[in-house]
Amino acid sequence: MSRALSNKTAIVTGASRGIGRAIALKLAEEGAAVILTARDTELLRAVLGEIAGRGGKAASLALDLSQPESPAKLVAETIARFGGIDIVVNNAGATKRGEFLDLTEEDWMAGFALKFFGAVRLLRAAWPALKERKGSVVNIAGTGGRTPGPQFTIGGSVNAAMLSFTKAMADVGVRDGVQVNAINPGAVRTARLTTRLRTLSQELGVSEAEAEARMVADSVMSRIGEPEDVANLVAFIVSPPNRYLHGALIDLDGGTTKTI
Fold first, then answer.
1. Quick one: angle between helices 18-29 and 41-53, nearest 10?
2. Is residue 3 part of a domain?
């Protein structure tokens, strides 16, 4: 087991499944003590079991980070349990897709409440601890923040806000010694993508494998991503030798993003 993050403590939000789960497993594998948070206690317990089974160290706290008081609770619990914070990965948050005129006020508010304001509040609460330890932040945004689409008006807007927030906090990080970066994953094989592929296969009257091939071809990308692709990049960014990487908005999307 590599120990590049030994003696580090990491918070990973949205850690019960998909990309967040993969990030939590990878950081624990690299030696970090990981605090996992999400809303589903049972799923969090399953990830804890995986980490323990691999010899890692982790704890969990089930919270809804869209609630204003939750981020401060998470920070307090992390410091109480592990003594400080070195890494924060803001991964929580899924936004509703659909036709613009079908999306409600509540859909828009919910989209920003968890992914954007949850991240803002968590960094506000965790920043003194990150500053003390010269820590690192990775915000998981998404390619929709750079290339919006008509079915993703909420997600694209939230992700764009996350990218702007990342750039602003990177300047604060220069002053305070905290590394801040963002990753824009493209199509990654999560439960949400699986549902989209199933729907696409039904619409086209083809198998799910053929629907996936059509999605890859239409987007002119190398392949569908895996959660581990994102986790590996997060682990690279927050490893001590890579501190010069700062204020970066990294497209991890198999070539989907075509703009310069």
1. 30
2. no
